[in-house]
Amino acid sequence: MIVWINGAFGAGKTTTARELIELIPNSMLFDPELIGGALPRLLPPKHLAEVTDYQDLAIWRRLVVDTAAALLAEVGGVLVVPMTLLRQDYRDEVFGGLASRRIPVRHVVLAPAETILRSRIEQREVPPGEEDGETRVRQWSRDHVEPYLTALGDWLATDAHLVDNGRLSPHETAVRIAEAVRTDAAPVVDIVQTPQPTAETVAAGVLLFDDRDRVLLVDPTYKAGWEFPGGVVEPGEAPARAGLREVEEETGLRLDAVPRLLLVDWEPPAPPRYGGLRLLFDGGRLDRGRTERLVLPDTELRDCRFVTEAEAEGLLPPERYARLLWALRARERGAAVYLEAGVPV
User: Fold this and answer.
1) Phi and psi (nearest 5°) for 84?
2) Could you tell me if 223 and 94 are in contact, meaning their C-beta atoms sit under 8 angstroms apart?
3) What are residue 125's phi and psi, to 5 degrees?
4) How far apart are CA 54 and CA 52, in angstroms?
5) 7 with 152: CB under 8 angstroms?
6) In the predicted model, what is the mean pLDDT of residues 18-40?
7) CA-CA distance, 313 to 230, in Å (whole number)?
């Protein structure tokens, strides 16, 4: 199990975490800051220069999940993780990756009043001799207060168990968290558990259109990026039937007929991904009444929207967008297309 302590920079996450491991039996501290600190030794300087926060690097998010899983496999017990996560898509990616490894996460946010938080930031110690310490420590924390408050008002407060530690010592805060974990007041994060593939997979997506011929995209909670409704075909399941099942599970829509095949794309392995066959089907046009009855499962999808072809380009990863373009052409021509690595053969 993981107890993830979230909150603004300066909220007291690390000091509280050190107290908490003394209260939760068989627990240890895992600070993802260590991974961020190692990345300058692993990545080319040009690659690092493109981002201002290592959380924006996909490798950081993957390494946090993989390292946490490896630590639990090695020592077991409970990991206490003090780490700020203010972007919901990053939270979904990290927690979804942990869920796929069957690792439960209890999400706690330290939420002192803003005045107390800003006061603590000004009192933070700057490591002696550190170059630009004032900027790197205090100013970084100041700059992230507003993003924290925005996240707290948008999604963070409903996603996690809040602990107001404004008047509490780190030990008292840790006691509150330990009690919340013990009593399930800080419940396990409810997020879909999608096992990581161990071989090539077959996935079936279904394109659904509204009365303006815009295509439906969904935003999964357990991985980054927008997608088409659909998912991995289960053993013994026909791909088109898998697409129907996934559409109903994800949107609440039950399609009347087996959808027509538009596209088959072979996705080559690109470690750590295994690749496999990606199929897209035409689910047809939905009338206004059906588009208004879409029901999203909170644990699996965060959002959905009908988008134009141009809008889809800004939401889909390049390989999925290219797949969409070929599928739309196939829909116009009335003939399915076969691709290999996104290129028609």
Assistant:
1) -75, 130
2) no
3) -80, 135
4) 7
5) no
6) 95
7) 19
Question: What's the token pair of residue 280?
Answer: 């897209």
How far is the C-alpha of 307 from the C-alpha of 218, rounded, in Å? Answer: 10
* Joined tokens for residue 340: 């290999």
- The confidence band for 181, taking pLDDT boundaries of 50, 70 and 90, is very high
- DSSP assignment of 31-63 equals -THHHHHHHHHHS-HHHHHT-SSGGGSHHHHHH
DSSP state of 188: B
User: What pairs with residue 2 in β-bridges?
Assistant: 79, 105
- Rounded to whole angstroms, the Cα distance separating 236 from 303 reads 30
Specify whether the CB–CB gap between 293 and 240 falls below 8 A.
no
| Phi, psi for 155 (deg, rounded to 5) | -140, -25
Residue 98 confidence (pLDDT) above 70: yes
Neighbours of 81 (CB within 10 A): 23
Round to the nearest angstrom and report the end-to-end CA distance of the chain: 47
For residues 330 and 337, the answer to whether their CB atoms sit within 8 Å is yes
Closest of 261, 278, 260 to residue 317, by C-alpha: 278
The CA distances from residue 41 to 49, 83, 183, 255, in Å, are 13, 21, 42, 52
Are 326 and 263 in contact by the 8 Å Cβ rule? The answer is: yes
β-pairing verdict for 260-267 and 337-340: parallel
In sequence order, the 6+-apart residues with CB closer than 8 A to the CB of 95 are 4, 105, 107, 189, 191, 222
Amino acid at site 149: L
Question: Tens of pLDDT along 36-71?
Answer: 999 999 999 888 888 888 999 989 999 999 999 999
Q: Cα 178 vs. chain centroid, distance in angstroms?
A: 26
In whole angstroms, give the CA distance from residue 181 to residue 20. Answer: 11
Q: Look-up: residue for tokens 């302590």?
A: 5
Distance CA 267, CA 274 (A): 9
CA–CA distance, 136 with 74 (Å, rounded to integer): 34
> How many other C-beta atoms can be found within 10 angstroms of the C-beta atom of residue 280?
29
Q: Which residues pair with 204 in a beta bridge?
A: 231, 279
- Tally of residues, the chain: 345
pTM as predicted: 0.70
